[in-house]
Amino acid sequence: MSDQTNHLSHQSFLLALLLTLLIAFASYVAFELGILSQIIVDDSTYISMVILTLFVLTLCHCVWRGWVISRQSDMLFSLRVSAGVSNSTLRQFPRGVSYAQDYLVSSFEHTSSGKVSKADVDSEVLAEKLRGPNQIGWFCVGLMIKFGLLGTVIGFAIMLSSVNSLEALEVSDIKNLMQQMTQGMRVAMNTTILGLISSMLLGLQYLILDRFADGLIVEILEEQAVAKR
Fold this sequence. Notes:
single chain, mainly alpha, 8 helices
């Protein structure tokens, strides 16, 4: 079990970093091919820039969360290797640094005092510490979809406004009308596609981070059960 924990200690961070590098490479290729740059140029509403900026910031948050989870897994492994988990040896890290150590220390204290309900609260606090910050990322994932839909609505509004501005359709106005309608359609399509792709890529990353966080929570609870025997 120790070998498995050691293997998983850096996996969340490395996987988040790998996916981020792949996304960065794909974005660079899209920019060099003119796909990404054309989307930005065609968008007069700047919604595409908002989505891309939010996407980059959320990617950074995702990598940081992967590092935090991997560090917490490292510290749990260090507690196991150093002297084993017991009430007398759980003082390796300062309080507040290792979530596993704080939870196990609190669990030993509440068990000895008979406060079982308090131990349940500690379990919820542990889960919130490891998974709670990921909700920021999930919020940004949903926000990107909403920005994409907003761009769709604005794009269609541009198309309709170009039609309503004409009192009588003249042959000389057809070219100008088609250009305005095409611009509105580009805004609608580009922002929708950009919002959907960004949300899907980030959703995959945060799903993986949640799975790693859940796995670490299970390991800590199993360690608590073994230490109490």
